[in-house]
Every structure is written in C-alpha cells, then in structure tokens.
Amino acid sequence: MALARLLTVAGGLCGAAGVALSAAAAHAGGANTGTAASFLLMHAGAFLAVGLTRSSRPLRIAATVVLVGLAVFAGDLLMRDFAGMRLFPMAAPIGGSLMILGWLAVAVTGAFTGSARRGG
After folding, report:
1. 10 Å Cβ neighbour count for 71?
2. What is the total count of domains within the chain?
3. Could you count the other beta carbons within 10 Å of the beta carbon of residue 102?
4. pLDDT digits (tens, 9 = 90+) for 86-105
5. Dihedral sign, CA of 118, 48, 7, 103?
6. For the residues 23-39, what does the mean pLDDT come to?
7. Quick one: pLDDT at residue 29?
8. Is the CA virtual torsion 48, 101, 108, 56 positive or negative?
9. 52, 59, 81, 82: most buried by Cβ count inside 10 Å?
10. Is 16 helix (H, G, I), strand (E, B) or coil?
11. Which secondary structure element, helix H or strand E, spans residue 38, and what is its range?
12. Which domain holds residue 83?
C-alpha cells in the first residue's frame, strides 16, 4: 500500500511541477525546462492511475522504476537550465533508460497479469 500512496502523491506533484515548469519555460525560456515539464505532465496521469487503482505489486514496482528514472532525467535537465551544471555525469541517459525499462516492465506486467485480473 505504501507504493500506491507514493505513486498517488508523485502523480499530483508531477502534475503541479509540470504546470509550474511549463509556465517557467514560457516566461523565462529554457528548452530543458520545457522538456522536463512535458515529461512530468505526461507521466503524472500514469502515476495517479497506478496509485489510485487496485494495481498489482509488480505494476506498482514498474511504475516506481519509471518514477525514479523521471526524477533523475528531469532533475538533470533542470540542473542544466537553473544551475548551469549536470546532476551527475550521464544522469539524463540513465534516467531515460530507467524510464524505458520501467515502461517495458509495465508492458510485461500487463502481458502476464492483465488478462488473469480481468478473468479472461
């Protein structure tokens, strides 16, 4: 249940941060800020969906991997725009790879548990 709560909170925070960063990108510029905002907004609903539904533990874990990847990826982009430095070397590619891995895990979870949960 703790992962479900974490993902629900993360969905809300990602949505709020995405809107705020979209405004910042529009008014202050910063292509990296706009990209981070887009990624935060596009993932917010997914975290809410997994957190608020009776999702399986493997699905919650997969979504958490996506969340960690998103935090590293967006964090690196924002550090570049606001601090003029990277979060750590190779942070964006590592974060992006974690997001890809997490989404693949979501797909695998759906392939192996989705039909059993729906009874078909």
Report:
1. 17
2. 1
3. 22
4. 999 999 999 999 999 999 99
5. positive
6. 93
7. 77
8. negative
9. 59
10. helix
11. helix 31-52
12. 2-114
